[in-house]
Amino acid sequence: MLFYLVLSCSSFEILAFPCNQFGGQEPGNNEQILEFACTRFKAEYPIFDQVDVNGEKAAPIYKFLKPSNGGLFGDSIKWNFSKFLVDKEGNVVDRYSPTTSPLSIEKDIKKLLA
Question: Which UniProt keywords apply (predicted)?
């Protein structure tokens, strides 16, 4: 699952996009993925239908996000649980690796919400 973190005025929203392009980690259909995320991880944020994030069939949102803040990651997603932080104007503020803990992003989110 890949995450797109969105800020608007004074709120914060997590949007999750399941993807099965990384080692077959999310092979189920959309309903199975949603059930798994909600029961196993208590997900309380929108989980969208499964998408491609790399390649010719990449979802439009990822075609926008990836080059906006590629840096050392380049223009591709390397693995599930990559994260993007987007401000209320729709600008990509930062991109986080799959191993970045959600708690370590908290300071960046608070700074944008201030």
Answer: Oxidoreductase, Peroxidase, Signal
Q: Among positive and negative, which fits the CA dihedral 23, 46, 30, 65?
A: negative
Per-residue HEC secondary structure of 31-79 comes to: HHHHHHHHHHCCCCCCECCCCECCCCCECHHHHHHHHHCCHHHCCCCCC
Query: What span, in angstroms and rounded, lies between the C-alpha atoms of 32 and 26?
Result: 9
Q: How many domains does the chain have?
A: 1
Cα–Cα–Cα angle for 11, 69, 113, rounded to 5 degrees:
20
pLDDT band at 46 (very low <50, low <70, confident <90, very high): confident
Q: Which domain holds residue 52?
A: 2-113
On whether the CB atoms of residues 73 and 80 are closer than 8 A, the answer is no
Q: What pTM does this model have? A: 0.82
Report the length, in residues, of the chain. 114
pLDDT digits (tens, 9 = 90+) for 58-92: 999 989 888 876 656 567 888 888 899 988 888 89
